[in-house]
Amino acid sequence: METLLVIVVALLAVAALTQAVRIFEISSQIKGTDTDVKVDDRDNNTQGWLMILFLVFFFGAFAWMVNEYKAVLLPESASVHGADIDNLWNISMGVILTAFLVTQPLLFGFAFMFRGRKNRKATYMEHNNRLELFWTGVPAVVLAGLILYGLTTWSNVMNPENTEEPMVVEIYAKQFGWQARYAGSDNELGYANVRLIEGVNTLGVDPSDEHSANDIITNELHLPKGRPVLLKFRSQDVIHSAYLPHFRVQMNCVPGTRTQFQFTPSITTAQMRSKPEMIAKVKRVNALRAERGEDPWEFDYVLLCNKICGAAHYNMQLKVVVEEESDFNEWMKQQQTFAEML
């Protein structure tokens, strides 16, 4: 509500200023006063130097922003395919920043160099084939290269070559939480349908399906390092978006259909916690939490919802633990199967 009031007040202020300017113009016309501004070389020089000053301020603000915000960027990818996605991101941003750093000085520099002068006359140029070819051909080639590289990266990520059978895990979404269902020793999920939800069977798993008995339902997602994982997504109510930022994974969960994504975790939770950049980030976060009287935070991978799915969307999170194969197997032994839950 506060934000809405600020926006309304700002709009009213702009409207009032516009009307004041209009009243001044009408008043000047009635009095016969000349409202045309006479521009001379001094004014043009002032405007030209202001352009240069703004360029310096603009680049200074940009440098400050990069320095301040680099600390809150995601750390290195914790999945095998994430390196390709990060590389695509870095190349794209490199192209964008190069264009930015080249065009902005030219834009403001030309405004300064060709500012109005008393004895200077503008040259009219109707057309230049070489310039047209340059500023359409170069962007076209660069964009075509980025698109082709992006399509190749996307194809490789979505169709990975399996050297071993991936572990199958279902991620079940509902307002406002997640549950994981492991395929068990047979690595095949039992049939499930929302119409079968009843009592402790919160995922609607079919008890009569022979593959359902050894399925394992958990409220945390544990994954073994270095082993391919095939996540199958299902939603109970609305469209959710399963987002695993540290693994560069995102996939929509759509009611009435199933989506999937395969990836291989490459960094355990313990290894990520021990990285210098993560230690520094945890220290900064805990300093802020201490000021607010909140408990200290410890880094964990997390599964988030990246769709605005309702009032408690912000709190829709699932803890993700990546561990060594032996630790994962030990954790799995402690979990109840679906048959044992009934």
UniProtKB/TrEMBL annotation:
Residues 164-334 form the Cytochrome oxidase subunit II copper A binding domain. It is a multi-pass membrane protein. Keywords: Electron transport, Membrane, Respiratory chain, Translocase, Transmembrane, Transmembrane helix, Transport. Its EC number is 7.1.1.9. One of its GO terms (molecular function) is copper ion binding. GO terms for biological process: ATP synthesis coupled electron transport. InterPro entries: CcO_II, CcO_II-like_C, Cupredoxin, Cyt_c_oxidase_su2_TM_dom, Cyt_c_oxidase_su2_TM_sf. Residues 66-161 form the Cytochrome oxidase subunit II transmembrane region profile domain. Signal peptide: none annotated. The chain crosses the membrane at residues 48-67, 88-113, 133-151. The keyword Transferase does not apply. The keyword Transmembrane applies. It is found in: Membrane. It comes from the Bacteria. SUPFAM superfamilies: Cupredoxins, Cytochrome c oxidase subunit II-like, transmembrane region. PROSITE patterns: COX2_CUA (PS50857), COX2_TM (PS50999). GO terms for cellular component: membrane. It holds the Pfam family COX2_TM. Belongs to the cytochrome c oxidase subunit 2 family. PANTHER family: CYTOCHROME C OXIDASE SUBUNIT 2 (PTHR22888:SF9), CYTOCHROME C OXIDASE, SUBUNIT II (PTHR22888). This is cytochrome-c oxidase. It comes from Croceimicrobium hydrocarbonivorans. The lineage of its organism: Bacteria, Pseudomonadati, Bacteroidota, Flavobacteriia, Flavobacteriales.
